[in-house]
Design goal:
Elements lengths: L6 H18 L6 H8 L3 H8 L2 H20 L9 H12 L5 H15 L5 H21 L4 H28 L4 H18 L15
Helix pairs in contact: 1-4, 3-4, 5-9, 6-7, 7-8, 8-9
Length: 207
């Protein structure tokens, strides 16, 4: 029987690995450069995570947890959906969120190709959707209506974020993107105005 894992040391390695992947992405990820950058060895990475695929899985999970923890600081039970979307966009469109957005789109593209990333596709596609749908139901929308509205919100937000990332590479003015999001927020506020607010049990995850 092998030696037990060292949880404290593994936790430190995982934090450093998440920072590295957020900065460099996954496309050219190799154990040797990663290990050198975070002060460990390829052997220790395999010791802690088993395989490169196991390392990537834990890095993506930890990155998602980190993002959800940041977003959770402004999610309040009584905030209307339009206000939550405005807060979310304020963070998502900031430079602080760029590494998470770039990683999201990279992993989403890899997941569509199947293989080792196939399991991440459903999680990436649904976490934020279920959260928004739940808040829309809480705001009084019927189930079918909330599902369609959540689909519109999630798809538009992701499209605008992709536009924003591309625009930062080309120097394009972001006012068009922000104005489009403002229109979506206004529409959402109108759709949920003067609705009954039933009590909902539980909250979806953000991601």
């Amino acid at each position: 029987m092998g030696r037990p894992l060292q949880p404290e040391r593994k936790a430190d390695v995982l934090v450093a690995a998440v920072d590295y992947v957020l900065a460099h992405g996954l496309a050219d990820l190799s154990l040797r450069p990663l290990a050198a950058a975070i002060g460990t060895s390829p052997r220790m990475l395999l010791y802690h995570f088993g395989t490169k695929e196991g390392l990537i899985a834990e890095v993506l999970s930890a990155a998602g947890d980190r993002q959800r923890a940041m977003l959770g600081t402004w999610v309040t039970p009584d905030a209307p959906p339009a206000e939550l979307l405005a807060r979310y966009w304020a963070w998502l469109s900031s430079a602080e969120a760029d590494p998470y957005a770039r990683l999201f789109f990279e992993v989403y593209g890899l997941a569509l190709q199947g293989g080792a990333f196939a399991g991440f596709h459903e999680r990436l596609a649904t976490d934020w959707f279920w959260f928004i749908e739940g808040r829309l139901r809480q705001a009084g929308l019927a189930a079918d209506e909330a599902r369609l509205e959540a689909t519109l919100v999630v798809a538009t937000t992701r499209g605008l974020m992709l536009d924003l990332l591309a625009g930062r590479q080309t120097g394009e003015d972001r006012r068009r993107v922000d104005a489009t999001m403002e229109r979506l927020i206004e529409r959402l506020a109108e759709r949920t105005a003067r609705r009954p607010h039933p009590v909902m049990s539980g909250e979806g995850a953000i991601g």
